[in-house]
Design brief:
The chain is α/β, with parallel strands linked by helices. The chain has one domain: HUPs (Rossmann fold, 3-Layer(aba) Sandwich), CATH 3.40.50. The strands form two sheets. A five-stranded parallel beta sheet has the order 3-2-1-4-5, with helices on both faces. Strands 6-7 form a two-stranded antiparallel ribbon.
């Protein structure tokens, strides 16, 4: 199958990073589709956020609305069957004996990217875009640049294709991710991310902090909050309105 070079499939969770990646893709490709995964995550509220974010992105820009195509949501309860992690079971978030955090879901991104590649192959889409990051990450080996490069090779060999994995956030800090969002969609996109995306591992949407909704204490909330504060400080010193 021929894959359109001006097309992309975004692994879209409804969080800050994947929303920024989606905006990045909409600013570059003429045809953009999204795919998400319900894998029994504790923070399943992110799945509810997905449709709201997609609708608001469409309303944000007529050009983005034209480019944004279908969304798919796949169910993967197999991760719960494989064993307990802090993202799939009600267990404490901590460091494990392996040196990895208990929020690490073994094989998650490997499976996500393989299934996304299968979808892209069938849909004739060339680029796979994911928000993995090696600069501000939680110690997950499947977020590394080397992992994504190896996956691209394996996927293309296994599918006899020439798909491209794009990782626009790979070398950005969380503060720089906010900067990127502002450069793509201005204050309107930043406000959309603040109000409507979800990052909190605990799945809490109650309290609205300066950086968005969340428990405020889990690693995901702490990282997002620290990045927002750094972004605000930089904007204040530079005179730019966040």
């Amino acid at each position: 199958m021929e894959h359109n070079a001006d097309s992309a499939l975004i692994v879209f969770s409804g969080g800050q990073d994947s929303t920024t990646c989606l905006a990045w893709a909409l600013s570059r490709f003429q045809r953009v589709e999204t795919i998400g995964f319900d894998y029994g995550q504790r923070h399943a509220v992110e799945l509810a956020c997905r449709s709201e974010v997609l609708a608001r992105l469409r309303a944000l820009s007529p050009e983005w609305d034209k480019r944004l195509g279908p969304d798919s949501l796949l169910t993967l309860n197999v991760f719960q069957q494989l064993g307990e992690t802090a993202l799939t079971h009600d267990v404490q978030i901590s460091m494990t004996a392996s040196g990895l955090p208990s929020t690490f879901v073994p094989g998650r991104n490997l499976i996500f990217m393989t299934l996304a590649a299968a979808q892209a192959y069938r849909r004739g889409l060339k680029h796979l875009v994911t928000g993995v990051c090696e600069t501000d990450f939680s110690g997950y080996p499947d977020c590394r640049d080397d992992t994504m490069k190896a996956l691209q090779v394996a996927i293309n060999l296994g599918m006899q294709a020439r798909l491209v994995i794009d990782t626009p956030l790979m070398w950005l800090t969380k503060a720089e991710t906010w900067v990127l969002a502002h450069s793509l969609g201005g204050t309107a996109l930043v406000e959309l991310i603040l109000e409507h995306t979800h990052t909190c591992y605990q799945g809490q949407r109650g309290e609205r902090h300066a950086w968005g909704h969340g428990c405020g204490t889990c690693p995901a909330c702490e990282l997002r909050a620290a990045g927002w504060e750094q972004y605000r400080e930089k904007n204040a010193s530079g005179g730019q309105r966040a």
